[in-house]
Design a protein that fits this description.
APC8 (chains A, B); homodimer; TPR repeat (chains A, B); TPR-like_helical_dom_sf (chains A, B); 71% helix; mainly alpha; 314 residues; repeat (chains A, B); Serine Threonine Protein Phosphatase 5, Tetratricopeptide repeat
């Protein structure tokens, strides 16, 4: 089993940098961020020459023009415009195909949230059916490609997300498992998977890739399923092996303490986290709940003030 | 004078692709989009080998880690978080320095718009002074670097924007002129410049870089200053030299016709534009004004319906 303590951290870092890049060019901002956070804390001693990923020329050669234009519109959140130009592409690159399908998915999501906010009271069956019809179209296209084994790890992730939306939870689980096998360093796929696992028995029955990141997923699941000791043991191993200052792992340790009601320890870790990542909003809701339970009014007031201040800049 | 008809379009395209990349890594989405739109329509016959820009290893070597993390937070619009990590950097790369200053600028802008919306009625002098103080800090830092000639074309652009905010219009004009000399293909700098030029006399007195893109700027200015014929002549030259399907240029032609009250011609070009870029919202306000003036109720209703539909997906 690929254990973090037995690995070459320069290699781990190189792979994380590549994952950041792979997510970033596909508009997967959260996946890119997680990979960046994990890579950032690793201070490898080796020369970092060659660490910086290159755009795969082969991949993009034929479709770089349309990719460049569509990604610009995508970044401006003009998803339909991105889709319009991408659909004229031949999809010789898996990146343009992913961007095409992902932009369609995000456009549909925007449309759905518009329908929900704008006409909540009067939202008739026809509107709900339209939303459903759109996501079913995506599902049909992705499942055809899936049968032909034409989906890469990122498209498998998207297919899993679509299946989840349609409440096809067993299929979603299987497809997301395929996704993490093909792209283990895309954290988004693990994250989608974790909400589909109700108990430890199911967790242990899954065939997970033999990759160091699996342990971060297991730790996350153990923490959520109240097996805190097991979770903390894994996180400690990461801390001991180069990830001591990783904000993601520190936050997860704090959350695990919270899940096991070790509030004092949780507060301690959250305070440390605040030192290294003072403008973080992620997980601060949990910190604030703990401070409330502990009746730590001073810290709560300080946190609340900080969060409100940060929010003014976002 | 660098005239588009005398240039190698493969080279022009290569430079535009590089400009798209340079803007994109700095979070300048609009600049990246304009370069992409100009590049996209150029169908060069030459082999495009080598067209795809590479991340400059030299530039990033030392600071790729912090860049990667900060850019992720930047893309999530968590500007203060990006700033926090970037400020620990030594800024050996002009890219990280730009991102650091730009994230600070955008954070300040967010704060300012928060102050304006949240407490419009009660906004006291102290709040306005705070906003002003923050932008002055940026100005001071940038002007020190400027004196030492340490600002690249993108930082000069940002410095120009900051000077404009402080109503230092003469200084802003000079700095933006430096910016377009250093980075002529960053359209954002031209765009900032164009609002600073009140008349043709001022326009002709400026020392502009001898670069083909200058002509697009001149055309834009001529159009705004009601010298429509001169504007259209320039745009036509671009159309005749490879840019026939460029959405930006088609839109500019339509706007020039509108400026000279040639409404029928404007409508015609807008209709053509709609065919190639059906999900465009940019400039559709102008199209709708023309249709209103022309009392073209059918088209107006169609346009209004389309715009509302597109808006649901954004």
């Amino acid at each position: 089993m690929a254990d973090i303590s037995s690995l070459d951290l320069s290699q781990v870092k190189r792979e994380l940098i590549q994952a950041n890049w792979d997510c970033s060019i596909r508009g997967l901002i959260h996946g890119a961020t997680r990979a960046a956070e994990l890579a950032y804390c690793l201070k490898t001693t080796k020369d970092t020459d060659g660490d910086i990923p290159k755009i795969s020329q082969l991949d993009f050669q034929q479709e770089h023009d349309v990719y460049m234009l569509a990604k610009s519109y995508f970044d401006l959140k003009e998803y339909l415009r991105a889709v319009h130009f991408l659909k004229q592409s031949e999809f010789t690159s898996s990146v343009t195909y992913f961007l095409y399908m992902y932009a369609r998915y995000l456009a549909d999501e925007k449309r759905r949230s518009y329908n929900m906010t704008d006409s909540f009271t009067s939202m008739g069956a026809s509107v709900i059916n339209d939303d459903l019809a759109r996501i079913k179209v995506l599902k049909t296209e992705l499942s055809t490609k899936h049968r032909k084994k034409e989906l890469d790890g990122f498209c498998l992730y998207l297919y899993g997300v679509v299946l989840k939306k349609l409440d096809l939870l067993k299929e979603a689980t299987n497809v997301l498992l395929e996704a993490v096998h093909q792209e283990p360093l895309h954290w988004g796929a693990w994250q989608e998977l974790n909400t589909l696992i109700p108990d430890k028995e199911t967790l242990l029955s899954l065939s997970l890739p033999n990759h160091w990141i699996k342990h971060l997923f297991l730790a996350h699941m153990y923490s959520e399923l109240q097996h805190t000791d097991e979770a903390l043991k894994i996180y400690q191993k990461f801390v001991d092996n180069g990830f001591a200052n990783c904000t993601y792992i520190q936050a997860q340790i704090a959350i695990a303490h919270d899940n096991s009601r070790s509030f004092d320890q949780a507060v301690e870790v959250f305070m440390k986290l605040r030192d290294i990542d003072p403008y973080r909003l992620e997980n601060m809701d949990i910190f604030s709940n703990i401070l409330f339970v502990k009746e730590n009014r001073m810290e709560l007031a300080y946190l609340a003030h900080n969060v409100c201040e940060i929010d003014k800049y976002i």
